[in-house]
Amino acid sequence: MIWETVIGLETHVQLSTKTKLFSRASTAFGESPNTNVNLIDCGLPGVLPSVNKEAFYKAIRFGMAVDAQINQTSIFDRKNYFYADLPKGYQITQMDLPIVLGGSIEIAIDNSVKTINITRAHLEEDAGKSIHDQFDGYSAIDLNRAGTPLLEIVSEPEISNAKEAVAYMKVMHQLVTYLDVSDGNMAQGSLRCDANVSIRKKGDSELGTRTEIKNINSFKFIEKAINYEIKRQIKILENGKKVVQETRLYDSAKDETRPMRSKEFANDYRYFPEPDLLPVVISNQEMQDIKDNFPELPKDKEARYEKDFKLSSYDSRILASSKSMADFFEDAAKKTKNFSLLSNWMIGEISAFLNKEAIEINESQLIPNNIAMLINRIDDQTISGKIGKSIFEEMCSTGESPDQIIESQGLRQLSDDGEIEKLIDAVIEDHSKQVAAYLDGKEKLFGFFVGQVMKLTEGKANPETVNKILKEKLKK
Amino acid sequence: MDQETVRTICYLARLEIDHKKSEKIQKDLETIIELIGSLQSTDTTNVEPLYSPLEMTALKHEDVEKSDNKKEKFLENAAASNEDYFLVPRVVE
Amino acid sequence: MSIQFKSIVELRAMLDKKSISTPELTQESLRLAKKYKELNCFVTMNEEMGPKKASAIELDKKTTSLISGIPLAQKDLFSTEGLRTTCSSKILENFIPPYTATAVEKLEDAGSITIGKTNMDEFAMGSSNETSYFGNVHNPWKKGYVPGGSSGGSAAAVAAGIVPAATGTDTGGSIRQPAAHCGITGLKPTYGRISRWGMIAFASSLDQAGPLARTAEDCAILLNEMAGHDLKDTTSLDVKVPDYRENIEKPINQLKIGIIKEFNLSELDSEVQSRFQDSKDLYEKLGAEFVEVSLPNISASVPTYYSIAPAECSSNLSRFDGVRFGHRAENTEDLNDLYIKSRSEGFGDEVKRRILIGTYALSAGYYDAYYKKAQQVRRLIKNDFDNVFETVDLLMTPTSPNTAFAFGSKGAQNPVELYLEDLFTISSNLAGLPAISIPHGQINSLPVGLQLIGNFLREDQLLNAAHVFQENSDFHLMQPTMENFL
Fold this sequence. Notes:
The complex is a heterotrimer of chains A (about 475), B (about 90) and C (about 475). Chain A is an alpha+beta fold and about 475 residues long. Chain A has helices spanning about 55-65, 160-180, 220-240, 285-290, 300-310, 315-320, 325-335, 340-355, 370-380, 385-400, 400-410, 415-430, 430-440, 445-455, 465-475, and strands spanning about 5-15, 50, 70, 75, 75-80, 90-95, 100, 105-110, 110-125, 130-135, 140, 150-155, 190-200, 210-215, 245-250, 255-260, 270-275, 280.
């Protein structure tokens, strides 16, 4: 039996507005519990919502970037259900007339490009947070997050496997960070993914029963969760049984999905238009302002890097692929002229380090000025490239500047001709046997002598100078 | 209105009806539903629903912080809380 | 000097002439409240902050506002910071809000003294003030009779002369109908005229705050202070507030008043008809012209309202879950159990009924047939009003088909019986239009009310017509003897 996987993704993007969707409480992360909570967010009797225009502008920017239809008049609805971190007993969301309709993105898979269509994107408020294991016998509710604006982006069920799902999410991540719509921080919950997975026989036009895997918060887990779920569903179907439509959670420790505690009655959300909010209209002038102030997208950045920094298209694409990398690069490029060396370091050493630590560049100790300084010191031969690498390691862990490290560890490259000549003389004297062998024709021993000089100088001798002088000395 | 429906809407509303009153409540609900069901006879073809009597659109505010947080007072009003959180019986997901 | 039964205008004169001081006035009002506590029109008295404020006002010589130092009662549906707010429900029995409703704040900022929070139907659901957790309110005109609802406590407090005026809220007639049953004046302004911030929501697209007072002029004075745009309520109108008192005495000749054909007044109680006819005659004498008008969909008002209001309230009352405030049941097994027990213990029967109906009307499979259908009929009703106001200035109806009735005599067997009492008032809430009730007679010693409905934002016309009527009659000057309440 050949099985086909059908996946649709719902992405919840926390918008990077300063304040919440319906109140003017701050959205700053990590504050003391229940302090970013205004009267409205607490759902007290008698309070009323009002609309944050910036949330709309960010949603519209997203819509424009994916060529979607923008509904300049959109409506909010109430989604009614009970949960401890939902203060009003309903969530204000958009059901019938969302702000964004349609659109599409492209994902790169195995050297080809696949289009994934977007069904819609709408604004809604986030719920608070429940902490279940901190207080004995109680769950604790923190409403700081309640009311934060979310953009829920729904894809068509056109994704065929876990790899495509990850590619889709990566494009989403890139887009929302580039557009300054969200900080896209999956670990902090700014970007969350629910995956709807179903299996059908290849060739079938009808969709199989789907399950929803909720709140997956890393690219790695998206891939694992989906793969597990596909295997699980196929096994059920091969045994002649039926897949149960349910909501499941991914357990990363066990690498499996399990059903959420089942509810006795299916939830009927009883959507109806929010009577405390009138229809929201975005004027043509507002639309034009958004268009006029549209941020630079990756494609445009790549072209600019090729032109202004004279980088290859390959290098430009890599640098532009992540907004945080691109921003870092551009900041560093203000303080150095060797763009190609800077670019090599970013794509090489720096990326390798970030991948190893699984962090973004703006989560590391590195700052653009320091990297620029490192590039400059290598460029002006204060240090060798090799020493540069060890200085870089130090920078990664301490955040100190290259100059600070060079001073404190005395790493300044030895370039003084006289000094080097003296050391070379000493090496030649101490290794007369090898010198004889070299002069006899064993040319490979040249590297041995270089190595000995480096040993004496703890690697600080300028390799070019060593080579030059050594060659001369050995000619005799 | 059958028993099953009553049970469902009671659960959706998180209400339980006293056993002694349940028959009367069910009868009351049926009477009210009959009342509101009488609207079926009004022709509303092509009529847009009127969700608010105001022919107005929403006011949008600037993305500028203005806190009216009163953390202590909020937590004080709760039946169970500590100095940081509202507390409810432990939820198992 | 007695302050009982005095209007705002009269009390202002007394304060200005220094025949009474502000603290004395406040104390008198509190004393009257205590004296007539059998009326049960107050849930909470403001015995500490009220007198304190009165003293402060007395010391501050420069009073510019008409209502500075005037004692008012606030319906317990308005959030008042530091002062218990219950909505006459067990679920909020001990709730102390951390903020004040805009409508009340504006009155208090203008110097009025809140002497207490008035009893009401639980969460404003009712037409007789018989659903309150704190017990029924008595009609000052007849003990054991309802004052009307849901603003029964406010109406009774004004009718009994304890305060010159009070605030109320009107979702289907809850200011006008108790005003009628208690023989006082009550105004429901245009939807959006007064901010709903802090007014605990029952049905968001229908609720509106308003004044209850002894005269139309006093209502105008309060409306001046209460009205206005509020950024915290984006459904409040951003329209300048005129001085509603300014042209209140304008003669009303050539005022065109419509009588609604579909209300079939000839089927009403003969005495009610008789009072209505007398008032029509008086208005004609004063220069108004009457014409019959048709609002073809108006008979659908009651079923329309009872689809929409419960639906909105079922959602608005979901926040009462025992988690962050309000009553929480003890010994619950889990979160769901906490919700179910807290809400079932905390809400009364009428509230439960409406939540269930509302939940039903919004539920999958029924939404189109009930909620959406009702909102469509609502548009038809509003269109009817828009049409009619092209040819008339005001509409006139009785406020209520009957006068006040004895406790428990209506609605006990069949709730719809009580719903039909709202027949004449409900449609103006659906259309968002302003309406006023003024006393225009008595039947068996119980007051009867006359209702005028105005066009969008034409409170000025309503108050003018009401005031001129009051200048030429003395029904509004009648006072209950209060002998059964001592």
